[in-house]
Amino acid sequence: MNAAVLPDPPAFRFGPITRQDLVRYAGAAGDFNPLHYDDAFARSAGLPGVMAHGMFSAGLLGSFLVAWVEDRRVRRFRLRFKSPVWPGDMLQATGSVVRSYQVDGGRVAELVLKLGRQDGSEVVTAMAEVECA
Amino acid sequence: MSDDGDVVLADWTHPVEWGKVREFARAVHDPRLGREPPVPPLTFPVVLSAEFIERFVSELLPLDRRRTVHGEQDYEYLKPLQVGQVIRCRAKVLRDEVKQGQRGGRMRLVTVEVKLTDASSGETVGFERMTAIEQEALTS
């Protein structure tokens, strides 16, 4: 039933996360929160060191979503941040179709997505709505 | 005031620039990187609102970044963003409340919404909503 709505998601692995990834994202996004580049500031917040931007992880999950649904129109992308990403982390993304329903002029698939670490712990969970022909 | 009568916290315009879209697509490893014209990644609207969010978190609220985490991010897409567009952004606070945390202590939840419209046509292209959570400071 749902299997025909979309192909299976592609394998998506990313890492190990480097400081260069964090700095590149900070510049691209214009997000210079020192938690993401200043170890001393991060330690003053009780962290072991700098962590990745939540929106960097969100961006990676968005890239996985685009790789999966290709040029189909995404209507909604809602993300929940579960745990921080640290330099050295290996990440992988998974996703599945929850349901699909008819709307005017086509079908919409509701997807759940997850970005996790290699130990299985969650980094970001998300839902998306995608228009399928 | 916005069209629907809510108080607008900030109102600004931001172009969707060729170079910025490519730079962002590269940073998040978008599989469409290299297309011409570049296709804005799904989370690209953060670029449009970055300066406002910085001012919102550091000055307007403000929140202590050492105790603040990003809880949620939510996008509604009505029309695709395109390089060359100028986007008008209007921000409003949807929620600013203090709740009891699950592990004791209180936390402040703030959700801000940025409505994105095409500055030329006035057409709404989407919404971006961000929720930040500030934990209560520990007292000795």
CATH homologous group name of chain A: Hotdog Thioesterase
Count of runs of 4 or more consecutive helical residues of chain B: 2
Largest sheet data of chain A = 5 strands, antiparallel
Strands of the biggest beta sheet of chain B: in what spatial order? 1-3-4-5-2
Q: What name does CATH use for the topology of chain A?
A: Thiol Ester Dehydrase, Chain A
Q: What is the total number of structural domains of chain A?
A: 1
Verbal overview:
The complex is a heterodimer of chains A (133) and B (140). The longest helix of chain A is centred in the middle third of the chain and has 16 residues, at 54-69. The mean pLDDT of chain A is 94. Chain A is built from 3 helices and 5 strands, in the order E-H-H-H-E-E-E-E. Helix content of chain A is 25%, strand content 35%. Chain A has helices at 19-29, 39-44, 54-69; strands at 12-14, 74-81, 91-103, 106-117, 122-132. Chain A has a single domain (9-132), classed as Thiol Ester Dehydrase, Chain A (Roll). Chain A is α+β, with helices and mostly antiparallel strands. In chain A, strand 4 (106-117) and strand 5 (122-132) form a beta hairpin. A 5-stranded antiparallel sheet of chain A has the order 1-3-4-5-2. Chain B has 140 residues and is α+β, with helices and mostly antiparallel strands. Chain B has one domain: Roll (Thiol Ester Dehydrase, Chain A). Helices cover 19% and strands 40% of the residues of chain B. The model of chain B has no long low-confidence stretch (mean pLDDT 92). Classes of the chains: A alpha+beta (133), B alpha+beta (140). At the A-B interface, helix 1, helix 3 and strand 2 of A face helix 1, helix 2 and strand 2 of B. Strand 2 (74-81) of chain A pairs antiparallel with strand 2 of chain B, so a sheet runs across the interface.
